[in-house]
Amino acid sequence: GAGVSQSPSNKVTEKGKDVELRCDPISGHTALYWYRQSLGQGLEFLIYFQGNSAPDKSGLPSDRFSAERTGGSVSTLTIQRTQQEDSAVYLCASSISGSDYNEQFFGPGTRLTVL
Amino acid sequence: AQTVTQSQPEMSVQEAETVTLSCTYDTSENNYYLFWYKQPPSRQMILVIRQEAYKQQNATENRFSVNFQKAAKSFSLKISDSQLGDTAMYFCAFMKPYSGTYKYIFGTGTRLKVLA
After folding, report:
1. Is any Cβ of chain A less than 8 angstroms from the Cβ of B33?
2. Which residues touch B68 (CB under 8 Å, ≥6 apart)?
3. What is the pLDDT of residues A94-114, one digit of tens each?
């Protein structure tokens, strides 16, 4: 079946603009994660959705960042008033919760460049 | 809080040789899961191998195996018979399920280059 998809694959924006990044998880996966990967760096956890539970937002770096997940499927990560330090690759992953391993399946990421 | 450390930012290995990537972690938990993920230049992260902490036997997946030392909190990845396609960033990750939450902690990665 289809894997995790993300759009757009690349986004260039001007400082101060708002951007929306989209993630389509694998059908049936109840858990969805957003990560940020800066150039040459590891994965920084941003937010985690699990079914209908309140999301774990503990990784969001500022109140300019928000995310929602509609109908337990598609998720949108919104960055308001973008700054140059927001430039990074934003990765989305989904998994089947409740299984022991909870392997994460990753999307190809969205490369965000803030000019 | 749990932390994951990968002390080797970059490594290289000759094709067909064996290489070991190191990973250490810090946790007070007894039951947890450890993973190695690969991120090739295409950027798509894929799972390489996983280990349950309560299992003493080291996990193996074809040319990939781990050396899991629970007391030392060490989880190294060994790649045997390295191939050019193994060139990628490798991330070590820790996960502790807690009350239905499955949150991963990733290391900073090791960039591996396989040389022809």
Report:
1. yes
2. B34, B51, B53, B58, B59, B74, B75
3. 988 755 566 889 999 999 999
